[in-house]
């Protein structure tokens, strides 16, 4: 596994290198604080995993990251971030960054993320990725689906929902299947709980 670190603090680079060499004996890891040196190292290893300090690349520097990824399309970029910023994380997701590691993560977590990325997996901390709120997800349903869901949450059967809305039980069932998929729930109970939470 070839890993190149680009970080503002050489002491952080040395600490991570030492920890990872202990946890992953076969790792080939180097680091630099200089952009020119990073380009040289990536040129020599164009399919490496490149771990980049997120503080070195903020909004105005995103073009630099894009240039790096365009010139070396086989690299896997892992961002090391000091703090959670949903907007920034969203930008990284859109640019095919493979992973985010919180800067204060344990060496074991760094190791696990690098192992996953080396296998082609994407690793973003769940709590850092903006999840749509329950109410936003409800708004993504059609008006008819929302009516069906409201009656379901009130405890009505498919037949009763159909009578109320003047549609067949089969149509009610089709609406329910569609909204279960949309809300990522598995059954009537979960859908009713989802609706109750979102409308409280």
TrEMBL record:
Coiled coil: none annotated. Residues 134-199 form the HTH luxR-type domain. Keywords: DNA-binding, Phosphoprotein. CDD domains: LuxR_C_like. The modification 4-aspartylphosphate is found at residue 53. InterPro entries: CheY-like_superfamily (IPR011006), EvgA-like (IPR051015), Sig_transdc_resp-reg_C-effctor (IPR016032), Sig_transdc_resp-reg_receiver (IPR001789), Tscrpt_reg_LuxR_C (IPR000792). GO terms for molecular function: DNA binding. GO terms for biological process: phosphorelay signal transduction system; regulation of DNA-templated transcription. Residues 2-118 form the Response regulatory domain. This is Helix-turn-helix transcriptional regulator.
């Amino acid at each position: 596994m070839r890993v190149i670190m680009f970080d503002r603090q050489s002491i952080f680079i040395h600490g991570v290198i030492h920890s990872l060499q202990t946890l992953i004996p076969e790792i080939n890891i180097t680091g630099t604080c200089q952009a020119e040196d990073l380009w040289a190292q990536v040129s020599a290893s164009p399919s490496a995993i490149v771990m980049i300090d997120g503080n070195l690349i903020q909004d105005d520097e995103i073009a630099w990251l894009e240039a790096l990824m365009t010139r070396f399309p086989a690299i896997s970029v892992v961002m090391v971030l000091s703090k959670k910023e949903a907007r920034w994380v969203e930008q990284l997701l859109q640019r095919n960054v493979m992973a985010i590691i919180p800067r204060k993560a344990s060496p074991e977590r760094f190791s696990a993320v690098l192992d996953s990325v080396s296998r082609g997996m994407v690793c973003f901390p769940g709590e850092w990725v903006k999840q749509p709120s329950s109410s936003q997800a409800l708004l993504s349903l059609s008006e008819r689906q929302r009516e069906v869901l409201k009656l379901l949450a009130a405890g009505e059967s498919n037949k009763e929902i159909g009578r109320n809305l003047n549609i067949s039980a089969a149509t009610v069932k089709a609406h329910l299947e569609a909204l279960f998929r949309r809300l990522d729930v598995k059954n009537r109970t979960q859908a009713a709980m989802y609706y109750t939470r979102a409308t409280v």
